[in-house]
TrEMBL record:
This is 2-dehydropantoate 2-reductase. GO terms for molecular function: 2-dehydropantoate 2-reductase activity. Its EC number is 1.1.1.169. It comes from Faecalicoccus acidiformans. Keywords: NADP, Oxidoreductase, Pantothenate biosynthesis. Pathway: Cofactor biosynthesis; (R)-pantothenate biosynthesis; (R)-pantoate from 3-methyl-2-oxobutanoate: step 2/2.
Amino acid sequence: MIQKVGIVGRGAIGALYGTLLLEHGCHDVVFIVDPDRKKRYEQQPLEVNGEFPDFQYVTSGESLDLIMICTKYSGLSAAIQEIAPFVNQDTIILSCLNGIRSEEECRKVYGEDAVIRCIVQGMDSTYLNHAVDYSHVGEILFGSETPQQRSKVEDLKQFFSRYSIPYRECEDIVREQWNKLMLNCGINQVCAAHQVGYGGCQDHQPYQAEFVAAMKEVQTVANAKGISLTDQDIQDWIQLVNSLRPEGLPSMAQDILAHRKTELPLFSLTIIPMAKELSIHTPVLEKLCSQILELEKNF
């Protein structure tokens, strides 16, 4: 049974899950931080939806049942090292980063069975100016890839049910990760490149066509690799984006506003090399990549 929980990363996703867990009665949850962050975070509490959750920060302690890594990709390597004192043979690790790469990096250190593939999606959480705001809590998707992971997946289902955290078990979690990657290569990159919110990619708005074209390029690469992404998947993402707050910002657009390096390596810079190996043209992804790299030069 999962009782003790640690979160790495106090940004848009980490703060959302930390807040939900506290609000729903899970009081054995901590944020794993380095000493500098512990001092800084305790001196400057984080505002979440206008309130200040009583987050607890730790640099050391006993092992945990579940660790959720919610950092940016640039912080993943440090996070993998920081969680080491909190991991035992039964600890479940969820890497809540975008893309299809972070689990493999975690597994190099902690093994395949400890790291359960997951996706967080559908939330509109925004982290700007030391404050987090959200209205959609989204959902967390996960699934087993081996028989040895089945018991951990069952533990996760019981845990998220107990604390009313929306979740969904996936029969094919790898396909679902590619599906989410398709969305991110569209919505994250288009909003970042043009510095607009979700509204810019909603129906009858100027960047929806580019948003869809970017997704279609990912779909083509995925299908060539034997991963079934369909036109219906694209339509479902269009409808999801239509349901979000127009002023809300995906994570990459938040990074651009805050002058932070983006997660471009997880998006276009993952797909474009694959496409070239398959002789697939990706002009939209390449254009978005160039635009974002140009913006990052000023950081």
